[in-house]
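Anyone else keep sequences and C-alpha cells together like this?

Example one:
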Amino acid sequence: MRKFPSAKELAKLTDPGRYAVGHGAYLQISEWGTRAWVFRYIRQGRARHVGMGSAIYVTLAEAREKAFGYRRLLAAGGDPLDQKRGIEREQLKADAKSFKQCALDYIAAHEDGWRGDSSRRQWIESLTRHVFPKIGNLPVAAVDVAAVLSVLDPIAREIPVTASRVRNRIALILDWAHSRDLRPNDNPAKRPNLLPKRKPQVSHFAAMAYTALPSFMAELRAQPGMTARALELAILTAARPGEVLGMKWSEIDLGAGLWTVPGERMKSGRPHRVPLSGRAVELLASLPREREHVFLGRRTGRRPHPMVLMLLLQRMGHSVTAHGFRASFKTWASERTNYPRELIEAALAHVIGDAAEQAYSRGDMLAKRRQLMEAWTDYCVEPRGAGDVVPIRAERS
C-alpha cells in the first residue's frame, strides 16, 4: 500500500510542485511559495482539478476527507468540478443583482466618458427594446449562452448591425459584473459563432445632388416649425444633425457669427468652431429663446431625436438623409470651387493626417472657412438657372 507523506513531512517541502497526499488530493506549492490543496481526476480522457482551499486554513486530514467525498461522487457518476461550479453559481444567483440593474449601473459608471448624450440614449433604447424584456430580470450570474441567444436570435437576420451592437453591450456588462464578483469568470456573449456570418456591406448616407439644393432650400424655407429650421441650419453649417439638434444658446455668439461646439458633443472629441453665415445668423436670431437648448421637441420639451429630420424629409417627398447634406456640401465644394481639400475637411470637422500632422496643424482656418460657408449659403439660398455659374471666392492655394 502506497505511503503518503505526513503533515510534518509536507511542512518541510519547499520546492514548487504537486505532491500526492491520498484519494487524489495534492499539495500544490507555487513558484511564489503559496500552498494549496487540489483534487485531480480524469473525466472523459481529460484531467480536471478542483481547488480545496489554502493549506494555511485547511488541514491535511480535511483535504483528504474532502477528496474522499469527491471519489465517492465520481463513483456515483457525478463530477466534482461541475458540482462546485453549480454551488458557486447558485450562491451568486442568490446574492447578485439582476442583469437590468447591472446594465443601468454600467451605463451610469461610463456615460461621463461618452461623447454627448446620444451614446447613452442608444444604449438605453437598444437594451430596453431587445434585452430587458428577455433577460432583464434574470440574475446577472445566471446569464448563460441560452439567455444571450434568446436576445440575439430574433434580431440576428433582420437587423444584423443592431444584433452585433447588442451582443457587444451584453458582453461589456457581463465583464463589468464579473469584475465586481457578481458572476463567474465566463462571458457567454463572447462565445464564437453566436451570430451568423454576413458579407460586410458598405453603406453611405443617401444624399441630395448639390444641384438640387437651391430649389430644395426654397421648399424647405416654406415649411413651418422648428424641425424645418433645424434642418435648414444643419445644411447651411454642414454640421452633423445631432450637433445641430443639441445646440445650446450658450454656444452661440450672434454678434461674432460664431457657434462653438464643445468637444463632448463632437465625434472627434475636440471642440469645433463653426462660422455662421449671414443667413444662419438671421435664422437663429428669429428663433424664440425658451430654454437652454435652441431646438426643443414639441411634445417632450427636450432635445429632439435626429429621426425628426428624416420624418420631415419623408413628408416633403425626399428619400435622402439629413446627414447626407454634408456629402452634398463636400461635392459642391470639391467640384465647383477652388477651396483646398484641407479647408473643406476642416469645415466638416474631419480629422486629417496622422498624429504628427495634427500636432502641427493647430489652426482651424476660421477666416477662410467663413468665406467658404458664405459661398455655400449664397449657392443654397439664391435661386439660379441650371446654366448659372457658381462664383469662386477662394484663391488658388
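And example two:
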Amino acid sequence: MGYKDPAFQDRLKSAADAKQKALDKLKSKPPVDEAVLAERKAAAEAKQAVQEEKRAAKQAEKERLEAEKAAQEAEAEASKAAAPTPEELKAARDARYAARKNKRK
C-alpha cells in the first residue's frame, strides 16, 4: 500500500500513539500549588464582593430616584389640589362682578 492509503492497523497504531502522547502530556503537568489556589479564590471572592457592592449601590440609587419621583408626583398633586378649579374661578369672578354691581346701586 502507498503512503496515501494507510492500512487499518497503521491507523489504529497512530491513534494509540496520539492517545498515549496526550496522556503523557497531561501527566507531566505540575500539581496546583495550594498557595496559588488560595490566592485565586481570594481574588474571586474580592471580585464578587465588589460586584455585590456595585449592585447594592445601583439599587440604592434606583430607590432614591423612585423616592424623588414619588415626592415630585405628591408635590404636583398637592399643587393641583391647591389650584382652584375652573368652576371656582368662575364663581369668584361672578362674586366680584356682583359686588361691583351692588356698589353702583
